[in-house]
Design a protein that fits this description.
Elements lengths: L1 H6 L3 H9 L15 H6 L6 H16 L2 E2 L1 H7 L4 E4 L3 H6 L6 E2 L2 H6 L4 E5 L4 H14 L2 E5 L2 H8 L6 E2 L5 E2 L5 E5 L7 E2 L11 E5 L2 E5 L10 H6 L8 E2 L6 H16 L4 E9 L2 E8 L7 H16 L5 E4 L13
Parallel strand pairs: 1-5, 2-3, 2-4, 4-5, 6-7, 14-15
Antiparallel strand pairs: 7-8, 8-11, 9-10, 9-12, 10-11, 13-14
Helix pairs in contact: 11-12
Length: about 325
Amino acid sequence: MGELLAEWPSAGLTLFARYGVGGREKLGFRPEQQLRQVLSRYLVFDVESVLQRLRDAEWEQRQFRLPPAQFAEALGGAALVDCRSPEEFRLATLPGARLLDARLATEIRGQKVHLFDQSGPMAGAAAVHLAAKLGCQPQVLDGGLLAWSDQIDPGFPVLGGRSSRILADWKQARFLCAPVPQPLEGNPALVPFECLRLWRSRDYLAVLRPSCDDWPGLAPLIRQWDLENHPWQPQARHDWSERVQAVLQEEIQPDLQSHKGVVTLKEMREGVAYVELGGGCQGCSSAAITVGQDIAAALWRRIPELEGVEDASSHEDPAAQPHH
């Protein structure tokens, strides 16, 4: 499935829309799984027919995509439309963008529009609909905001990005900066923006805020701020194993019980928590979402300094009996 998504980015959304696989914003499979294996869970066995549908949907969307550089050059003179959820829109969006809803769809009937989402497929599906039903002339940001952050503006923080990125708890973002040999703690009272905490570790500046709205609005303030002359102090760090285990048992395990799942901390290494899913969560198609979103968000809320959260489960174990 990972290779299929790399070739046809729209495949995940098409599988949901056509066959109910996964959700609107959540994949219903793991990258290492095979399409036939995924479809069989939904009693769909004509794999060739499904492949043709996925191929057709992908080619339908491709006519509207523009690489990030061309999309940036084309901006202006047309509505800029965010095709994500209202929550994601408040979190981070491009300047001047409006959220796609029924009212906006009526306003842009027959017009040229620029569309984007997190990674591309939602905006691509919207482009197909707007062109066919409303006579619009859509252009889609290929790769979505993830590509925009990587290729156009590395300082633009985006959820799940590789450059500056917003973490799963939504209230912490990490911005690339000069590396430091040890973690440093800053003084929130001495910076030109509102935050609860800030610290430096490795090659990033971490900012923890009371609100998660408009992270991109903070990026220019950070770029203008004299980071190196701030009175940084060494940050004390300890082994977080006991705290991680407490969060897993108090906040995560109760939610997994309905799926007969269990979660444990396999190890802490260089500040990264490696968690292991068992029971009905081992081999589950939603394991990556459970770890990367739900578990990571809970851990970062309680232990903001964690360097990362990774899935260390053996999902391909023949003995696994996943709930989904």
